[in-house]
Every structure is written in C-alpha cells, then in structure tokens.
Amino acid sequence: MLYLASRSPRRADLLSRLGVRFGLLDLDVPEHQAPGEPAADYVHRVAREKAGAGLLKVLASPGAVVLGADTEVILDGRVFGKPADAAEAAAMLRALSGRTHEVLTVVCLASAGREAQAAVATRVSVDPLEDADIARYLATGEWQGKAGGYAIQGRFEAYVARLEGSYSGVMGLPLRETARLLREFGVPV
C-alpha cells in the first residue's frame, strides 16, 4: 500500500492524477533549515524525514511504501519557505519580482527494505511586480501555506514570464519523476 506523508491537498491531488490508490499520513515534521545548511541539502533532508516518519507509522503494514516530498523556493541560495503572514509574503514577492529563482522539489520513497529520491529543479522567471500587483495577489489568500508566498497554479501564474522545468514540481510533486520512482517500487501507475 502506498502512503502519502503530507498535509498538502495539492500533493494529494497531484498524486491522484497518476491513478494510484494511496492513504494519507498526517505528520508533523519540523521544517527548519539548520544554520549553514545548504538549501538543496535542506530540501533533501526534509523530504527524507517526512518519508521516514511516515514509514515508522506504517511499518506493521506489509508492503508499505511511503512518499515524502518537500518543495522550496530558492533565490540567491536563500530558502523562501511558507510565509508566516501577509507582510512576509509581500517581502518574498518583492524579492522575486523581476528575477529568476529556483523551485526545488525532492520526492523520497521509502519502504522497509529501501529508499530512493528524485530531485527536480525548475527555474521560474517572474515579471516585475508593482506594489499594487502584490497587494491584489495577497488579497486572494492563495499565498497562504505556499513556499515563496505564491501558488503557480493560481492567479500568480499571470506573473510568470518563463518556466524551465516541471510545472507540477513547482506545485509540489513532479509527476514524471514520481511515476518513475513508484514504478521502481512496484507501485502500478
């Protein structure tokens, strides 16, 4: 049985697009970057910790496979996680305005006998944003709970000038790479 170790409704929706049956695991895995920890190492670690914590919950279930994932917006080596409030989201959007940043998603699959990861980096170029643009976007509420303070699958897409990589990866789960990992673990896709 496949389990998704995530509270993200977007990840659950994306995973369901692959036509797989899965259970949801509600976990509370801390997402705090350690001092001096490189951004990519942080994203890999969090994805692995989510999968590992999920596996501990379902170890008694024969054939259990757990999918953990983490997605972060990275600009100039700095991780832009989920903003605590609208002011922090506005600051993130101002920093991303008129620039190209990276969205890194790491998917980790774990079972009792093995573990594998796939990392997908996507470059996202954002149009220059006026304060009025930011205020209108924040008023939608879409920024809440989203790395970097935006949801590419929502109204923010109108400000994306260019995307190089995986659209679903920016949303939180790169489908092509996830499907490959699932097949490697014997999960029919």
TrEMBL record:
SUPFAM superfamilies: ITPase-like. It is an enzyme of class 3 (hydrolase). InterPro entries: ITPase-like_fam, Maf-like. It catalyses: UTP + H2O = UMP + diphosphate + H(+); dTTP + H2O = dTMP + diphosphate + H(+). Keywords: Cytoplasm, Hydrolase, Nucleotide metabolism. Nucleoside triphosphate pyrophosphatase that hydrolyzes dTTP and UTP. May have a dual role in cell division arrest and in preventing the incorporation of modified nucleotides into cellular nucleic acids. HAMAP family: Maf (MF_00528). This is dTTP/UTP pyrophosphatase.
